């Protein structure tokens, strides 16, 4: 029904100015303002993600943005230098190391999770080699 429709994803933040600085300066993504008072993240491949302010914002409890990287270890180290802290998970489904990296070890990709200034969960995923 909608296979030929343009689509985009969106999520909320509590502080659009802080989000814009984080996504453009810390993550290095292309960001632009939208006339509707929202921000757009321009993603490789031509996709856009709308980020909108919400005064009663509640951080997502799931990953809202996954970023594929060629070398997860280097990407995590680069963000740690910029002050990022990676999430620590230790349960039956997820077990991260001291850096916050879950090693797929043949059962999936290596992944590391972190939060944006609004508390939304993002991830870095190592691309398949």
UniProtKB/TrEMBL annotation:
Domain of life: Bacteria
SUPFAM superfamilies (alphabetical): Glyoxalase/Bleomycin resistance protein/Dihydroxybiphenyl dioxygenase (SSF54593)
Start and end residues of each VOC domain: 2-127
InterPro entries registered for this protein in UniProt: Glyas_Bleomycin-R_OHBP_Dase, Glyas_Fos-R_dOase_dom, VOC_core
Alphabetized Pfam families for the sequence: Glyoxalase
Gene3D superfamilies per UniProt: 2,3-Dihydroxybiphenyl 1,2-Dioxygenase, domain 1
Protein's UniProt name: VOC family protein
């Amino acid at each position: 029904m909608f296979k030929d429709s343009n689509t985009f994803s969106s999520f909320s933040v509590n502080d659009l100015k802080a989000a814009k600085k984080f996504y453009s300066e810390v993550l290095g993504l292309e960001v632009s303002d939208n006339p509707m008072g929202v921000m757009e993240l321009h993603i490789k491949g031509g996709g856009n993600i709308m980020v909108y302010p919400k005064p009663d914002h509640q951080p997502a409890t799931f990953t809202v943005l996954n970023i594929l990287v060629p070398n997860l270890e280097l990407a995590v180290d680069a963000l740690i230098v910029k002050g990022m802290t990676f999430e620590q998970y230790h349960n039956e489904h997820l077990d991260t190391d001291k850096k916050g990296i879950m090693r797929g070890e043949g059962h999936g990709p290596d992944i590391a999770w972190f939060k944006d200034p609004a508390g939304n969960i993002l991830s870095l995923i190592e691309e398949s080699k």
